[in-house]
UniProtKB/TrEMBL annotation:
Coiled coil: none annotated. This is Mga helix-turn-helix domain-containing protein. Residues 484-504 are annotated as: Disordered. InterPro entries: Mga_HTH, WH-like_DNA-bd_sf. It comes from the Bacteria. Pfam families: Mga. Residues 82-164 form the Mga helix-turn-helix domain.
Amino acid sequence: MEFEALFLEKADRQKFQMFQIFTAFNAESLTVADLAARMDQSYQMTYNVFQELATDMGGILKVTPAQAKKRLMARAAFPFTVDEYRLYLMERSIAFQFIDYLLQGNRPTTDHFTAEHFISRSTLTRKTAPLRKFLQRYQLKLSVTQPALLGPEPQIRLFLGTLYWLTYHGIRWPFVSISEATIAREYRELASARREPLMALQEIQFWGLCRVRIAHGNYVRDVQLIDELFADCPLFAAPSYDPKLFFNAPADVPHAEQRFFCFLQQKTIIFTPPSRTDRALYEFFKQQNGPVWQFATGLLDHLRALSGANLSPEALAQTQVPLNVMRFACSFVIMNGDYVKLSDFFVPQEITYQQSHLRDVLADYLRNLPSTEFNRVLKRTPCVLDMLFYLFAPFLRYLHWDETVAVKVQLDANDFLNHAVLDFLDNLPIVRRVAASAPAPDLVLTTPEDAAATTRNETIFDWHVDGDHHRLLRALSHGVEPLSAKADSRPHRHNKMTATANSR
């Protein structure tokens, strides 16, 4: 899901998309017709969006709309970034302003918010509908009647942390009641403070968010799973907060808040070389040899057994892959399922055949995990497979399983057009033609008459003999459901498909 779709109106999303196009391409060579083609909309609509974008630019740059148009179309670099324009639009979004009001407002009420923004309750309900639907996936509810974010406090913190990071991205400090300089100074004094500037900035902003929630009496209370999984971990021993912050809080809150912030620091997926803190966490899991270590090493053993690659924890230690697997496994178990994270807003691309095979292998490992208390959460949470795939997709080059597509051809060898198809297949390095008697091929190229003889787990789609080689190549390369699959009740599979010839 696109992050902007949760908060911005359609007109604002179109302006943001157009600004992204201007920053990604040579603006001087773009015409309105080019923009219309890239945005997949009419010329007139595109021109209207361009006019509105120029008005925004004029307001930001303090120039006239005509001057703003020249700046947009000039070859020179833009005076502000895509992140800054997103922040400009977000700060004018009713949905984001409502969330910010609930976080930072003093005794917020819906009547006060609607009066300040000259809108009705029904308008507020309508403008927050996409966000409320999104939050339902994470055990959260955005209430308009009783203005509040309702749900487990750890889930609320991770949602707000992701929201404010994607919105502000370090451009400005978002919290009015807490000084950035004070938080940054206290953060640098922590033994667990990150030395990488971007990660430090992200943790400082999240710590500021935690301070705001604590100041308004919203506490993390239940950290039993954190205590169990990280018992005696030295990284969780040092205090994070000044005890004076909790003078009005229940007695168990200081411990719970300290443990939760330490958990937040250690759950972050990292791809830079391991730091001293990373190595200490890795050694802690290794010495503990508990469910976290067993899940990660079992997965590496599973991949190694199928691919023959050296995927031992020691071989991959410098890549952070084993530790990242442990981090995200802990996160899903502690949060009792899915939670809001940056990867929720990735725009997925169509995966290749080899990548679909990796997903199958990872899914097989999750499916066959022992039904322990730790593993049950991982087995029932669908996005665990997505996270594993994101972690291992960059390492496909280490996995040496057969990366060719087995194709069984059942066509009339005397047909001239069929010969053209066979030549096409024979010149593709990803294709391995198999005998007609071969069991379970990846793809069967056949005729409509012979398609009825295919097995029930094979997807059937029409192959046009008048030269539609592109569709066949996509099916071979991506291993996805064909574009014109016949409507039937048979299950579709990623790597089992049947192409039929001589049909229109």
